[in-house]
From TrEMBL:
Keywords: FAD, Flavoprotein, Membrane, Oxidoreductase, Transmembrane, Transmembrane helix, Tricarboxylic acid cycle. InterPro entries: FAD/NAD-bd_sf, MQO. The chain crosses the membrane at residues 7-27. The keyword S-adenosyl-L-methionine does not apply. Pathway: Carbohydrate metabolism; tricarboxylic acid cycle; oxaloacetate from (S)-malate (quinone route): step 1/1. One of its GO terms (biological process) is tricarboxylic acid cycle. PANTHER family: L-2-HYDROXYGLUTARATE DEHYDROGENASE, MITOCHONDRIAL (PTHR43104). Gene3D superfamilies: D-Amino Acid Oxidase, subunit A, domain 2, FAD/NAD(P)-binding domain. NCBIfam families: mal_quin_oxido (TIGR01320), PRK05257.1-1 (NF003603), PRK05257.1-4 (NF003605), PRK05257.2-1 (NF003606), PRK05257.2-4 (NF003608), PRK05257.3-1 (NF003610), PRK05257.3-2 (NF003611), PRK05257.3-4 (NF003613). Belongs to the MQO family. It comes from Flavihumibacter petaseus NBRC 106054. It is an enzyme of class 1 (oxidoreductase). This is Probable malate:quinone oxidoreductase. Its EC number is 1.1.5.4.
Length: 503
């Protein structure tokens, strides 16, 4: 193998998905002099979790996702997480609109479209839950466009496929927000990387797999990556590493050897979609309709019937059907999970497994599903569905975070988590939902942990407020600010009108 010289870079980003794209775009706007290297093991950009066919494409703003608004023991609805996610997605929209105005990206309709967000429930218990959820959320201006109804005729107008053929005696209810979104995170990631690729001090290396990373006495990191095409090795010396490799982040975090990464484990959950192949059926549905998850189901498995717009073409998906694989990535190895088990995380993994028996049972039931079982699940939401109109597709792979817990020994987390070294020289992003939708907020948190000195300077503060006008301000507590920034970003992103996708 040909020996390559050591490259030098200020920043190395591992993984070419929405997280690395977001961080690279932020850093280059904050300091144009930063030199950046992006390493991606696939030969395409955004080919794993960020790809449009590997995720739901929902602009997660907690408008329809019921798992973000749990019912407490006293019967009240906790909407704190919903508010946080709503504000985070607004930050993402502000940053994307800034990138358009700055000429970094263009044609927003290629990656974001307006699609109504609907929550739909069945049965008296869930109807009462949805009514309480609506009452709790409508107290705040962030959710003042939400509608609630038990009127079957109105619901038939909102979602005809779901109401056609439904038992007239079944209690049903729905909430709807007209200004929801569908986002193609793969297309957005590629737009950002295409801009970065044109910059002289940014190098993007596809088909490069990171095999090792070690911190040097100087505090810098030496990264060894293999070109999967030529088999040559590349060595890069850098002051900062971001591991944004989706499910592949945990093994790389373990290789780094930082003490902050000890005790973390990962539980992989795979997914499948039913994709509609009948244009007449696709055209009849115009919304993202979310239901309630089964007992023990992870958040990524909440059933939903989704209008999607991918590469300018309208699509319709139902799912996802969960499954289990020992792979951490869709294009990963069956040895990913076994290889991730270490002496320092085996106890948290065992303990979290014992505490999540319902999840284990749920995944077993999903793995053993037949085509008839999948049709039955679809018909719960779309009573007149026919399997001839649908095709099974493999969705993305997610790895849920397992971490040490002083009380329980180990807990399974369903969100995202940034793990940083004490000196701020390396950070890894673990976890899944809501992930991509809140990428900007997550990367702002990373900047606070890993670039505190730069972030404290007036220059960076001014630039951040220019890119994200609500930065460090509460949209919940400032109605006028929310109206101002939302209207501006919606105008730039062309989200004022109903979706008019060409089939």
């Amino acid at each position: 193998m040909e020996k390559q010289p050591v490259l030098h870079a200020d920043i190395v980003l591992i993984g070419a998905g929405i997280m690395s794209a977001t961080l690279a775009a932020l850093l280059k706007q904050l300091n144009p002099d930063f030199s950046i290297v992006v390493l991606e093991r696939l030969d395409v950009l955004a080919g794993e979790s960020s790809d449009a066919w590997n995720n739901a494409g929902t602009g997660h703003s907690a408008l329809c996702e019921l798992n973000y608004t749990p019912e407490k023991a006293d019967g009240s609805i906790d909407i704190k997480k919903a508010i946080k996610i709503f504000e985070s997605f607004e930050e993402s929209k502000q940053f994307w609109s800034y990138l358009i105005q700055a000429g970094v990206i263009s044609q927003p309709d290629n990656f974001i479209r307006p699609v109504p967000h609907i929550s739909f429930v069945r049965g008296e218990k869930d109807v009462n839950y949805l009514r309480k959820r609506y009452d709790a959320m409508k107290q705040y201006h962030l959710f003042d466009e939400m509608e609630f109804t038990t009127d079957r005729q109105k619901m038939a107008g909102w979602m005809p496929l779901i109401m056609e053929g439904r038992d007239e005696n079944e209690p049903v209810a729905a909430t709807r927000v007209e200004n929801g979104t569908d986002v193609n995170f793969g297309a957005l990631s590629r737009k950002i990387f295409e801009y970065l690729w044109r910059l002289p001090d940014v190098r993007i290396r596809l088909a490069h797999e990171v095999e090792d990373l070690k911190q040097q006495p100087s505090g810098k990191w030496l990264i060894e990556a293999k070109n999967l095409t030529t088999r040559n090795k590349t060595h890069i010396l850098t002051r900062f590493v971001f591991i944004g490799a989706g499910g592949g982040s945990l093994p790389l975090l373990e290789k780094s050897g930082i003490p902050e990464g000890r005790g973390y484990g990962g539980f992989p959950v795979s997914g499948q979609w039913l994709r509609c192949i009948n244009p007449a059926v696709i055209e009849k549905h115009q919304a993202k309709v979310y239901g309630k998850a089964a007992v023990g189901a992870p958040p990524m498995s909440v059933p939903h019937l989704d209008t999607r717009v991918i590469d300018g073409k309208k699509a319709l998906l139902f799912g996802p059907y969960a499954g289990f694989s020992t792979r951490f990535l869709k294009n990963g190895s069956l040895m990913d999970l076994p290889a991730s088990i270490k002496y320092y995380n085996i106890l948290p993994m065992i303990k979290s497994g014992l505490d999540n028996i319902d999840l284990t049972k749920y995944l077993i039931s999903q793995v053993t599903q037949s085509a008839d079982d999948r049709l039955d699940a679809l018909q719960e939401y779309m009573p007149l569905a026919k399997m001839a109109d649908w095709k099974l597709e493999i969705a993305g792979q997610r790895v849920q975070v397992i971490k040490k817990d002083p009380v329980h020994g180990g807990v399974l987390e369903f969100g995202t988590e940034i793990v940083c070294a004490g000196d701020g020289s390396i950070a890894a992003l673990l976890g899944a939902s809501p992930g991509a939708s809140t990428a900007v907020s997550i990367m702002l948190e990373l900047l606070e942990k890993c670039f505190p000195a730069e972030l404290a300077t007036p220059g960076w503060q001014e630039k951040l407020r220019n890119m994200i006008p609500s930065y460090k301000q509460s949209l919940l507590q400032n109605d006028a600010l929310y109206r101002e920034v939302s209207e501006k970003s919606n105008a730039v992103l062309q989200l004022e009108n109903k979706v008019t996708a060409q089939g």
